[in-house]
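User: Please check token order:
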Amino acid sequence: MRWSRPRHYLLPPLLFLTLSSGALAQSAEELLKEIDARKERINQFRALLNDPDQSTRLAALDVMLKSDDLAMKEVAYGIGFNSADEATRALALKGKFRDVKVLPFRLTTGEPQTDTEKNTIRKWAGAYGFELREFNEDTGQFTFRGDDYPNRDKLGQVNGTGVEFQAQYCRGYFNLGDSASLVGELRCTGPYEGTYPAKARLH
């Protein structure tokens, strides 16, 4: 005698599928609402960045740079670094020093290169390693460790759109270029003696 399987055994899987579909639809709808809300918030701040009043622009940029919303922060850095206003660019630079931990400076040298310069670039694999340890946003002062002496903290200073630092053997002089890059040079003594034009990409 052949027994037919009771149909009620099929109900739990069907019920699960129905509930799952409903949950997914609800989740997608909630996600779209969240995306729309974030877009609206970013657009509102973007409008404030174009406000004719500089204090309003700087306040809006500061809030965006300190936001936990990564998309908001990326928009802020993009607008800040490419602004024609030096105060806006300076604020973006300070924000980057607050956020960044490692900042490699790509090295080049003039012609002719000395043997010491060639050996230094080879040793550092073409980049001066720069580990930011602490940054005081109010004063612009920071501590860091550089490749010329990586075991001791040294001091540096962000001043407007300029950055200077003194390591063990190398001193850095940099300014924020037209794009989101610090452009300048390292002047080194001792075992790394030479002058090295360098650039660090910030965004």
In short: The helical segments are 11-48, 54-65, 70-81, 86-99, 115-123. Residues 171 and 177 are 19 Å apart (CA to CA).
